[in-house]
Design a protein that fits this description.
Glucose Permease (Domain IIA); single chain; binds zinc ion; globular
Length: about 500
């Protein structure tokens, strides 16, 4: 078992962790708990049998009855949909055939934007602490009772002038989750309680020991300018894929290219897990701080999810994931103005290697990114290699499986990363292949597809709200806990 690190407090109550980079971590209890909740609440929509995805539930028979709000557009002739019973008997060759079958169906979901609201603060002590929920807008008497019963000892251990809290409300102001900490200073005695509304009525509470959680995280402060303009130095501090990720996050959070950016002292506070052999390195929190005013200007937090890919969310609960899922070419292009693809926009990624020729356009089922032969192609998210080989019109093709029945396709490649084989685990930002013009292609470009349950999804369609970039009620508790653990504590 790895040793707990020292938690060193500075004057602002900001912690620093000193952690071994190579200690082994099993899944946290919290992760498991969330996974359980996620499994229960997350209703997987099986829209089609058209792929042989092993994660889909064979018992799910609602193929012919798409759920409310979901449409499957068919283009060209419709495919024969075979019965679920044949799934197990398919040969590997048949499965590959299905995997590499160019789709004719398009996924479209027109749900309104999810309603998710987060409030944070530090509630001054000296009142009856059991009333904290009603002071911050939670008025359900049943919850108030539950909260009082669960927090008697917790408040006995509290210290400092205020109780930091993060609360999340869902649709129509429904209470989703509340996390509180027993004081504004983070130290080895810090405890976090997280209350969540159970999907079956009633409430759940989770207790978390901060020290146990913090030992894998390292806090870095990097000047904003360096994050944006000095990738070389950034690369000295972070693994290259994290350097790119940080650059990309900060550009999304702080896209304004104004002169004031350069003239005021700003820093990026980053919480990072450097990972181990068995665990990918991961950025967990990013805050852009104005040193002059001591304000947090923008922030993003990583929410790890076992059943679907994780996502970066701002403290308001807005996901910034969509741009990651639409940038298979711009990874590691770490310079200002590169990879700045505004979410929900169809403007070009300003790719310097394309020498002004970079175009992205939708034809058939997929997005084509024009780029010179040999341009590196990167995985848009963590996953596993499901297919690697030549496949008809696709030419040289790599398919990556992501949790939650998502797949990404990278086609017409000139070559593969020759270290890859089917079954390899892949991290976001990993170089998987190189742009080419193999298969049915009229010039060098990357053909990219995102599919859910085998059905093509246009990741640029703003109306499509995939769980990839949505806060689900089952994510809420981990998110409020995370904000409390990793975010700057708001003033009381
Ligand atoms: Zn294409």
């Amino acid at each position: 078992m790895a040793r707990s690190p020292l938690l060193i407090l500075d004057n602002q109550g900001v912690y620093q962790t000193h952690t071994s980079r190579f200690c082994i971590r099993s899944l946290t209890l919290w992760g498991k708990v969330c996974f359980g909740i996620g499994l229960i609440l997350c209703s997987q929509l099986v829209l089609s049998q058209s792929n042989q995805n092993t994660k889909s539930n064979p018992a799910n028979k609602n193929v012919a009855t798409p759920q409310k709000g979901i449409q499957v557009n068919q283009r060209g002739q419709s495919k024969a949909v075979s019965g679920g019973s044949g799934l197990q008997s398919k040969s590997a060759a048949e499965q590959n055939q299905q995997l590499t079958d160019p789709g004719t169906e398009e996924y479209s979901q027109f749900d309104a934007l999810p309603d998710f609201q987060v409030q944070r603060g530090c509630l001054k002590r000296g009142f009856r602490e059991g009333n904290l929920p009603s002071r911050i807008g939670i008025n359900d008497p049943e919850f108030l009772e539950y909260f009082k019963n669960q927090t008697v000892r917790f408040f006995d251990s509290a210290s400092g002038p205020c109780i930091p809290y993060v609360v999340a409300f869902g649709k129509r102001g429904r209470f989703e989750s509340l996390s509180i900490m027993n004081g504004p200073s983070r130290n080895e005695k810090s405890q976090i309680l997280t209350f969540t509304a159970s999907g079956f009525g009633g409430y759940l509470v989770q207790e978390e020991n901060l020290a146990a959680q913090m030992q894998f995280w390292t806090e870095l402060f990097i000047p904003l300018q360096e994050v944006l303009y000095d990738p070389q130095r950034l690369g000295d501090k972070l693994p290259v894929e994290l350097a790119w990720e940080l650059n990309s996050i900060v550009k999304q959070l702080y896209p304004d290219d104004s002169a004031s950016l350069e003239n005021s002292p700003k820093q990026v506070r980053v919480i990072v897990d450097f990972g181990t052999r068995d665990r990918w390195a991961q950025i967990w929190a990013v805050e852009i701080l104005n040193l002059a005013t001591n304000q947090v200007l923008a922030d993003a937090f990583w929410l790890d999810r076992d059943d679907i890919p994780g996502s970066f969310f701002t403290a308001n609960g807005d996901s910034i994931e969509r741009s990651f899922w639409t940038n298979p070419l711009s990874y590691r292009r770490i310079s200002r103005g590169v990879g700045q693809v505004p979410i929900r926009s169809r403007t070009n990624p300003n790719n310097p290697q394309a020498q002004g020729k970079d175009r992205r356009y939708r034809t058939h089922m997929g997005i084509d990114y024009a780029a010179p032969t040999g341009t590196p192609v990167f995985s848009v998210a963590n996953g596993k290699v499901a297919f690697l080989g030549y496949s008809g019109a696709y030419g040289k093709l790599i398919i990556i499986d992501h949790p939650g029945n998502y797949r990404t396709y990278y086609a017409h490649l000139s070559n593969y990363n020759n270290e890859l084989v089917v079954g390899n685990d892949i991290r976001r930002g990993m170089e998987i292949g190189y742009v080419g013009s193999t298969g049915r292609s009229t010039g060098p470009h990357l053909h990219y597809e995102l599919r859910k349950n085998g059905i093509y999804v246009d990741p640029y369609n703003p109306k499509i709200q995939l769980d990839l970039w949505t806060m689900r009620p089952s994510d809420s508790g981990s998110f409020t806990k995370q904000l409390l653990m990793l975010g700057s504590i708001p003033k009381e």
